[in-house]
Hints:
Layout: H1 4-14, E1 19-26, E2 35-43, E3 71-79, H2 92-101, H3 106-116, E4 121-124, E5 127-135, E6 146-149, H4 150-163, H5 165-170, H6 178-191
Parallel strand pairs: 3-5, 5-6
Antiparallel strand pairs: 1-2, 2-3, 4-5
Helix pairs in contact: 1-4, 4-6
Amino acid sequence: xxxxxxxxxxxxxxxxxxxxxxxxxxxxxxxxxxxxxxxxxxxxxxxxxxxxxxxxxxxxxxxxxxxxxxxxxxxxxxxxxxxxxxxxxxxxxxxxxxxxxxxxxxxxxxxxxxxxxxxxxxxxxxxxxxxxxxxxxxxxxxxxxxxxxxxxxxxxxxxxxxxxxxxxxxxxxxxxxxxxxxxxxxxxxxxxxxxx
Length: 196
């Protein structure tokens, strides 16, 4: 991961049951340059967590676009600078490449792109693929993608950490992220009244 924004978005998706690839590379083709997607994620149906595992653990806003019991993919662009232009992250060839990578069939991809390319959710045969922007600065959601603020994502992570405080705090060193470990440490100190 390159920066704190991408790391927060990564853990937001992980805590919502997704398997996440960071810096997914789009290789050069005859018509396009090399590039990357910040995050590409897939979530299988019937995901359960050992700690918690309740339906209300999942983010309500995210799951107003996705179904808990369907295959779901997410292409996520993270913007931490003030000059964010996220629409280029969702160009047709990038969507096609990402949809192929998460394992959607050629027929599903054709249907998703022909019927829903300009919508934030691409759908086919009980499979959904969400175009998501996580931004430090305000970017208005459009019909073409869903936008979440970095603050919203951070709050979700803190709330999950608080909901399962002892389990998350005690296991914090096993999470491969110093940022997430620090967030768990800080939340534990705040809740115990030992934070400044």
